[in-house]
Design brief:
Length: about 230
């Protein structure tokens, strides 16, 4: 039996949609629910973007190979025009050798540039979406920020600008659970990019988003521990 150890963007998208419904059912018209709706729409665009990254850029590859082949043919043709029978001095040979080495270095740099065009285009797009994903993690952090488990079921004196705390112990536990699930799904969407494009910068950006989500989740779980004590 073959084991599939890769993330499925379609299943992740479906899970986000179900989480959004669960949040709306428990907390109608909540900001967390609207944020999850936004992330659900973003995950659909992200799936299209990842499919775009997975596909090879056939036109760019064809043009790259044609340019390289044409360059090599021109170099070979120019070599055939050289008259090697002429006796040259040492200084002339050294000058020709230096020019040849410089040309080889420039051609190598040009070939490298052509070969990396496709990857650089994909990297730029992946980084852009990963930055947007990072923003969702910070928004979820803002939602859980004012959820203080120590203020449950106690006689408190609020100030004029104190945040409204109307959740029961059970409701706050569910709210924090939803935040934890939300953050996990944000990390999974980020991981899809490093899975599709194992580029150093993309993998690093994806790991940063996952670490951010893990750090915020730790804060959420600390609140859950306090809530259940």
């Amino acid at each position: 039996m073959e084991i599939n150890n890769t993330l499925d963007s379609g299943k992740i998208e479906k899970t986000i949609g179900i989480l959004a419904k669960r949040i709306h059912e428990r907390f109608p018209d909540s900001s967390l629910g609207r944020t999850c709706d936004d992330f659900y729409g973003f995950s659909k665009k992200s799936k299209v973007n990842i499919d775009w990254i997975d596909k090879p850029f056939i036109l760019i590859r064809i043009v790259t190979y044609l340019v390289i082949a044409l360059t090599i043919l021109l170099v070979i043709y120019s070599i055939t025009l050289v008259d090697f029978k002429i006796k040259n001095t040492f200084s002339e040979i050294a000058t020709v050798a230096e020019a040849s080495i410089n040309n080889i270095v420039l051609l190598s740099a040009a070939f490298f540039f052509l070969f990396t065009i496709e990857n650089r285009l994909k990297r730029k797009r992946a980084i852009k979406f990963l930055n947007e994903i990072r923003g969702f993690a910070h928004v979820v952090d803002m939602h859980q920020l004012i959820k203080d488990p120590q203020r449950i079921d106690e006689n408190r004196i609020d100030t004029e600008n104190s945040p409204k705390r109307e959740l029961t112990k059970f409701e706050m536990q569910r709210y924090l659970d939803y935040c934890s699930e939300f953050l996990s799904l944000i990390g999974k969407v980020a991981a899809l990019y490093s899975q599709s494009l194992p580029d150093v910068e993309v993998v690093q950006a994806s790991s940063e988003v996952e670490n951010l989500c893990a750090n915020i989740t730790n804060k959420v779980w600390q609140k859950l521990v306090i809530l259940n004590q």
